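Hey, resending since the last one bounced:
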Amino acid sequence: MSDLFLGIDIGTSGCKLALFDIAGKAAMQAAEPYPVYYPAPGRAEQDANEWWAAVCRALQRLWARGADPARIAAIGIDGQSWSAIPMGFDGKALANTPIWMDTRAADICAVWEKRLGAERLFAVSGNPFSPTYTLPKVLYWAERDPELLSNTAYILQSNAYIVYLLTGAVTMDYSMSYGWHNFDQQKLRYDASLSRELGLPDRFLIEPVPSCTVVGQVTAAAAKATGLLTGTPIVAGGLDAACSTLGVGVTEPGQTQEQGGQAGGMSICLDHPRMHPKLILSPHVTPGRWLLQGGTVGGGASLKWFAEQLACKGGPAPENIFEELSAAAETAPAGSGGLLFLPYLAGERSPLWDAKAQGMYFGLKYAASYAHLVRATMEGVAYALRHNIETAAEAGAAVSELYGTGGSANSHIWTQIKADVTGLPMRIPASDTATTCGAAMLAMVGTGAYPSCRAAADGIVKIRRTHTPNPANAALYQHLFEIYGDLYRSTSESMHRLYDLQSTL
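The structure tokens again:
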């Protein structure tokens, strides 16, 4: 009996797989890590072949624990944003993919903005022309490695790469279209004139489909590699942030997901596109909806860096390290004794869009303890979240409550900090598998188990706890947030000078 749905998440630190029943209960999970490579300043890459290998390993772990592939009714796949996987005509990846934090195309962006006009690019895409997006990475190759592009048959996003290896289908879903600035977010089609001026060949312009569309079935070759059954339906899937947003039940205008994974940020559900030059606009995986997103570089990755480099002194981190860090943060006062952290460890995305932004601790004193440092790191991520929420309000997108997702949602202290810093209640779903659950929900809708994404959310999502803002802490954080904003504004020039110097070292 086929009564389970598989969600596959291609994240930054690794892949996560989970099997769900029709009620959204996770029957079994597995995860496998893979590295991020930093070959030069401004570069952050992953090997898509390592994604596939990790997926295959995770599936083997499921089978070893007793999971039955015959019970899988359909599969949904989500992935990190703004990949650019150059696929050869032989169906193999030709190079590592620059990932969402890669900023190598900063100079290329400046050239094209001058050539075409930043206003025109924004009017079509609804997004800033940042080097972290997919299109600038392709334009970088066109300028710096034209031979690579001449040998490229098509450019795939992260979820589409796994879909391709499972089914042989070349796809892109609507939620991933926003990586291409030549894709009109209001008309939901490529701008033909802009595409021609950018010099993009037609073979790169994959026509998108709704995320819940069944695009193929597991092939015999994929079945042999994975242990899945031949013929298992696969839906297009979508952006990880959008799947996570669906997974916490955000399908209606005004509802907002807070992303607490490796990257941080928020996704506000809209019933029509709202543009802001400092935010991110994308279609939702829910048909007829859009997301106004604030995506930051420093989310869970900031605490992961702290754990690996400071807590564990560069050595391996124990499995319970994040519980230990949360316990330490509990012992520090709100505001961390006036210690501030800027989570710009790989530049910053929205709303700064500054590839040269630098991370820092500010306000260090002899009285600062290990616990102060941990809590300040958590608070810095919360300030970045608030910065995006306040920016969204400028576009008329008000937020009344946040639905927390990602690993940080498991930390009660970090969740409470976010509620206190933003002044908004934080609602945490009963399941901490929102992203994989959202991918599985797309598979459910695509194969008719639910008639719509809204119906799937109503049938699956349950809230397990709510954090309300502490008024006293909120008042303190208001003052500290103002200083947080001043820090970047007053030091950005020095940050840029230091970045340029770092590139020579």
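Residues 28 and 65 are 9 Å apart (CA to CA).

Sorry for the duplicate.
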